[in-house]
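Lab notebook: predicted structure, single chain.

Context: the supervisor wants predicted structures on file for every construct in the current expression panel, including those that have not yet been purified. This is the next one on the list. No modifications to the sequence; it matches the entry in the shared construct table.
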Amino acid sequence: MRRMGLRLQFNLVLTVVFLLGLAVSGWVSYELLQKNARDEAVRTAQFMIETARSIRGYTVNQVRPELAPRLHEVFLPQTVPAYAASAVLSDLPGHTEYVYKEATLNPTNPIDRATDWEADLINVFRRDDSVDTLSGVRQTPTGPSLYIASPLKVGSEACLQCHSTPEAAPASMIAAYGSSNGFGWKLNEIIGAQVVSVPMAVALANANQAFITFMLSLCGVFLVLYIILNLMLSRMIVQPITRMSKLADQVSTGQMDMPELDESNRNEVGQLAAAFNRMRRSLEQAIKLIDA
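Prediction complete. Output recorded below exactly as produced.
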């Protein structure tokens, strides 16, 4: 049976260790990158909601008062906080895959009406005032989607100018949307939710790319280490031991004219070479004594 060489044994052990390390580090890094991707998506969605609140406040306090006199002649959607926030965030550079919506149970504009799952979120906010954020993952026809929602409350009397009664609302708004929806709101009432959604595929795409890059880099590092360790093993161990083996074979057949092994290495291989040289000299002297 052929014996397994030292280099082969070393490489087998090194490969097994690398594969185990690759599996463990791959699993840990994958889970961590996936979690970080989800957390980053949630942070971005929260930032968009905070931005929407600022846009709403700016629209109510500064834009609407300036355009209010014209509302008697023509309805201007730019005076509606929900329209302003949605218009700005729908074209946010680098985040066009994020969808912002102000889902409302009783909206003036039918496009803002809450779907069934959005209505469930709104009802949670209405039942418990202490809940200020809801997030999760839901299944959609195009795959799983990550969402985050925040309650939408009637926070000022300015909102009630258009949503208290049809009689108090601008005539141009009634002409545009009718008098059946978007009325009866009360101050401090939760009437909807700010919802930001993003496909999970988008949220995790960067994480998957980072994972692939990390694993390829790890394999590259292993390949470099594999080459370096094999060169060191060959130079420092395999070659000296091979020379010792050949010299031992020659000495065993009575050939004593071979040069001695190099003893300059200050390690175990050098100590072994020195011991072998001493053994050879002792053996040579013993043979000379016998011949004499």
